[in-house]
Amino acid sequence: MTTQYWYNVRTGEVEQGAQSSWKHLLGPYDSHAEASQAMKKVQANNERWEGEDAED
Q: Which stretches does the entry tag as region Disordered (predicted)?
């Protein structure tokens, strides 16, 4: 089984394997680097979706 990484939104830390409550985690991600960028990805998706909503 491959290692999975999770971003903890409560602590702002990347976890190797899901160590915290699921309600605080984003993921899984394939690498530590990818997980560390989770909030940037969330923000980019939110901005894209808001733009799509504005077009409707």
A: 36-56
